[in-house]
Amino acid sequence: MGVPIALTVECDRPTGRRQEAYDFIRSYIVRHGHSPSIENIRLALGVSKTRAKALVHQLAAVKAIERVPGAQRGISIPGLARELVLEELRREGLIVSAGEPCPQGHLPLIAILAQIPDKSAGEHHDGSECGGAARL
């Protein structure tokens, strides 16, 4: 599901325990909708509470995860929500390009008309009936 990430500054390959911790945190968030506790991480990896805290601290230091200081279950993965939404859209059959911005800024603006004037009747319409907002 997730793509392996490089978690160390010294080398490009992920370290075993940190990658395990990252994979567990990611799958836990996906499955439960919130982050795991340090105790959940400790039990899943079979490490001490001190080691689990150290792994979370190391992941935060390399920006693989983000933490809310002092918050319980305050771990998040940057970009995970977007990644999950894109996966779901693709699963539904939509073609989505994650690298390009949405085109809303490039769509043409369409005038909203309360009434389309009748040119054949020879009437001159100045837009006053529509609050003057729509002039063509």
From TrEMBL:
Pfam families in UniProt: LexA_DNA_bind
LexA repressor DNA-binding domain sequence ranges: 15-74
Highest taxon of source: Bacteria
SUPFAM superfamilies, sorted: Winged helix' DNA-binding domain (SSF46785)
Alphabetized InterPro entries for the sequence: LexA_DNA-bd_dom (IPR006199), WH-like_DNA-bd_sf (IPR036388), WH_DNA-bd_sf (IPR036390)
Protein name per UniProt: SOS-response transcriptional repressor LexA
The species this protein was found in: Sphingomonas endophytica
Species lineage: Bacteria, Pseudomonadati, Pseudomonadota, Alphaproteobacteria, Sphingomonadales
